[in-house]
Amino acid sequence: MDTKITVTVEEAARLLGISRSLAYEMARRGQLPTLKFGRRLVVPRRALEGLIEESQKAASLAGKKP
After folding, report:
1. What is the pTM of this model?
2. Residues 6+ apart with CB under 8 A from 32
3. Ranges of each domain in the chain
4. What is the DSSP code (8-state) at residue 7?
């Protein structure tokens, strides 16, 4: 498989264009969906895509461009 189905919180931060610390804060608050495997915290790619889609829908409902 070429594409990983999960990314680290740091990778998710880069993909979203936010800081590492904000990504961890969002994960702590439950705003960034994560899975925990032992001590490792990962973010499913599908959850990232869903987060972006939700944000775009909310922006369009508010009459803003994403």
Report:
1. 0.80
2. 9, 12, 23, 26, 43, 47, 51
3. 6-60
4. E
Give the 3-state secondary structure of residue 30.
coil
* Bridge partners for 44 per DSSP: 6
Query: Going by DSSP bridges, is the β-strand pair 6-8/35-37 parallel, antiparallel, or unpaired?
Result: unpaired
Cα 10 from Cα 58, distance rounded (Å):
25
Cβ-in-10-Å burial (0-12, 13-18, 19+) of 15 comes to middle
pLDDT tens digit string along 10-37?
A: 999 999 999 999 999 999 999 999 999 9
How far apart CA 59 and CA 12 sit, in angstroms, is 21
